[in-house]
Amino acid sequence: MMQSFRERWYHMSQRERMLVLVGGVVLGLSVIFVLIVDPLLDHLERLERQAMRKQKDLSELALLGQSYLTKRDHLSKIEGRMPQAESHFSLLTFMEEAATTAQVRERITSMQPHVQSLTQGYQETAVDLRLEGVQLPELLAFLAAVDQAPYDLHVHHLQIRPKFDNPVSLDATVRVLSYAKS
């Protein structure tokens, strides 16, 4: 086969030889490009896309890390204001003391405690308090006493209705929440 190729090569003119050489070089370069260069370029492009995606994921992870640290610090501050198990804090007793301090204890018509266990070792204690015939300054003094509690208490619900026979007197329903580790 090689012998027949050499015979043909010697019978070709100079122009035909040049044309065959140029065609061979173009064909060789095309094969090299298709088999080696193009797959490498595709691989590099894919790696660049992956690097950009990983960079984006890394920045999102950094943001999530910052958010996590912020929320963890916030949770530790909240847990620092929660009553400890050895403190024997009772929300019901505290509400009675706050009502006595605000001079609205005799206006309490009902006081109902509710205890609910939450996920991850927390317990929610709620007290529903109903006041009748209270005046606005007294109600504000009671809410201020709740706000100045040594622990983190939340007024979850507050409903105020004036009495029809005496608009200065109010009926109020208050729900106060407290959280503790169980």
Provide a descriptive summary of the structure in words:
The chain is α+β, with helices and mostly antiparallel strands and 182 residues long. The chain has two domains: 2-78; 85-181, Alpha-Beta Plaits (2-Layer Sandwich). Helix content is 55%, strand content 26%. It has four helices and four strands. The chain has helices at 2-11, 14-80, 91-101, 136-147; strands spanning 108-117, 122-135, 153-162, 169-181. It has a four-stranded antiparallel sheet with strand order 1-2-4-3. Strand 3 (153-162) and strand 4 form a beta hairpin. Helix 3 packs across helix 4 (136-147). The termini are far apart. The mean pLDDT is 88.
Summarize the structure.
By secondary structure, this protein is an alpha+beta fold.
CATH architecture assignment name of the largest domain: 2-Layer Sandwich
Shape assignment: rod-shaped
SSE pattern: HHHEEHEE
Give the CA-CA distance, first to last residue.
Answer: 91 Å
Key traits:
2 domains; alpha+beta; 4 strands; 26% strand; 182 residues; four-stranded antiparallel sheet; Alpha-Beta Plaits
What is the strand and helix layout of this fold?
Elements: H1 2-11, H2 14-80, H3 91-101, E1 108-117, E2 122-135, H4 136-147, E3 153-162, E4 169-181
Antiparallel strand pairs: 1-2, 2-4, 3-4
Helix pairs in contact: 3-4
